[in-house]
């Protein structure tokens, strides 16, 4: 019996203590409030939320990253693109910095192509309307540029195919051209080009931090480090409050 008690005592004394849960360990990490404020202001500035950036910089007592007018112009241009007002967006870009599109012929072509798509979209919504404006625009704006780049030619041909097939008969590659996500994609590229022109970074720091976090999780799991089964960031939760963000029209 004594031998059994000794064995039990030995087992208890050498047992590994229960590890602290991942959530508790994460809570124990002290993040500097000023660093978090910098990340938030950086995001609002880079993504083009002028009112939010101005309000947050005042409340957090942080010096603004950009002149309000620079943020406001990018925000306005993104809004125009999201609303399908591409000609107005191009004019706004040229009024802000005439060299942006000259330095980025691919971006200029993407905007013009999106403008053609919007003309086709308008025609599809009213089939008895005149298709001539779309054809004329393609001939005047896209056709001269298409031969200079194989990607331009392919994109123009795919876009013109929207005129051949009924909207409900399009395959996925063509239907995607009419999806609002293309507006978002072009708007983001325009925003990045303008940021470069304004001597700013092309991307908010939080985006690189999210990629770094994903890489770290993948690395930890590959090395069998104990982690929760799921570690979602919940960045797409539309129910979360967006106190500072002015809406982006779509």
UniProtKB/TrEMBL annotation:
Q: Which organism is it from?
A: Blumeria graminis f. sp. hordei (strain DH14) (Barley powdery mildew)
InterPro entries per the UniProt record, alphabetical: CRA_dom, CTLH/CRA, CTLH_C, LisH, Ubq-SigPath_Reg
- Could you tell me what this protein does? Involved in the proteasome-dependent degradation of fructose-1,6-bisphosphatase.
Write down the superkingdom of origin.
Answer: Eukaryota
Q: What region holds the CTLH domain? A: 70-127
Protein name, per record? CTLH domain-containing protein
> Which PROSITE patterns does the protein's record reference?
CTLH (PS50897), LISH (PS50896)
């Amino acid at each position: 019996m004594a031998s059994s008690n000794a064995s039990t005592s030995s087992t208890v004394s050498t047992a590994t203590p229960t590890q602290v849960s991942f959530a508790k360990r994460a809570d124990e990490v002290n993040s500097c409030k000023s660093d978090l404020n910098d990340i938030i202001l950086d995001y609002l500035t880079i993504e083009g939320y002028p009112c939010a950036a101005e309000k947050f910089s005042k409340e957090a007592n942080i010096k603004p990253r950009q002149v309000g007018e620079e943020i406001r112009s990018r925000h306005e241009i993104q809004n125009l693109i999201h609303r399908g007002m591409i000609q107005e967006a191009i004019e706004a870009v040229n009024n802000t910095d005439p060299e942006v599109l000259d330095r980025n012929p691919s971006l200029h072509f993407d905007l013009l192509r999106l403008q053609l798509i919007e003309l086709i979209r308008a025609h599809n919504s009213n089939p008895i309307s005149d298709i001539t404006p779309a054809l004329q625009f393609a001939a005047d704006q896209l056709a001269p540029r298409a031969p200079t780049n194989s990607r331009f030619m392919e994109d123009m041909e795919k876009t013109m195919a929207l005129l051949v097939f009924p909207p409900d008969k399009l395959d996925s590659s063509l239907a995607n051209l009419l999806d609002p996500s293309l507006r978002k994609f072009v708007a983001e590229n325009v925003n990045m080009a303008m940021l470069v022109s304004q001597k700013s970074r092309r991307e908010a720091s939080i985006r690189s931090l999210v990629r770094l976090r994903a890489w770290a999780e993948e690395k930890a799991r590959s090395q069998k480090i104990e982690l929760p089964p799921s570690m979602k960031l919940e960045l797409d939760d539309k129910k979360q409050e967006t106190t500072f963000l002015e809406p982006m029209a779509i």
